[in-house]
Write a structure and sequence with these properties.
The protein is α/β, with parallel strands linked by helices. The chain is 31% helix and 20% strand.
Amino acid sequence: MKNIVKTTDLINGWKKLGLDIGDKVIVHSSLSSLGSVDGGPETVIKSLQEAVGRSGILVMPSFTYGGGPFHSETLPSVVGLISETFRQMNDVYRSWHPTHSFCIWGKSAKNWAVIHNDYHPFADNSPIGRLYKNEGKILLIGVDHYANTMIHLAEKFVAVPYISGMSLEYLDDNGNIRKVTSPWRPGCSKGFNIVDSLVRGTTSWRSTTIGKAECQIMSAIDVVSCATSLLKKDKSALLCNEPLCEWCLNAREIV
């Protein structure tokens, strides 16, 4: 008989990880990694909302990667079914960024969903910037650091030389396509797992298994600190080694 992941399994799992009322957490997830979930992505989301409560903050990426002119209410997230389901739920607010938007629920969620006036995906006033400043947590559900967006902040803080700008498109209130320029185009993250052993050695890191998925929780500050320590020694530390990855090959040449 196939095991079914139920709400109680999820809630008990979040408790084992130390997720608590009032926590501020960003969630990167793979629904399929859990196995069969009773109620699907809605069950996962509601269990997370129960875990942090309305006094907490629940953040999920709703990235589009430029899959069309951005409109916050219509352009879907392309980073998983849990993320896309979360985007469409009541009391969830989406930040404004044409390629790297985030969805937020909880205390002051609307205030967190601010316009990035400089169009920087990880500006200080972006959801990910605020999560870092507020000593938030990172929850990885069945995914590894390849999905851990917080690591990009280390690239920002160290000012790696391969950061470059990009052109963005969005739809204005009249349905017209507008173009703006971002000071940073986030690149490949396939090399981010180099931080794994360092992060697992921090006091904030915890892990448990829910269904078929390894679920990890950690401090945003610890993750950025680990990645920053690597970059200070080698500016190319977070780049992947895949021979056909043009982005990382070009970045290595710049470094």
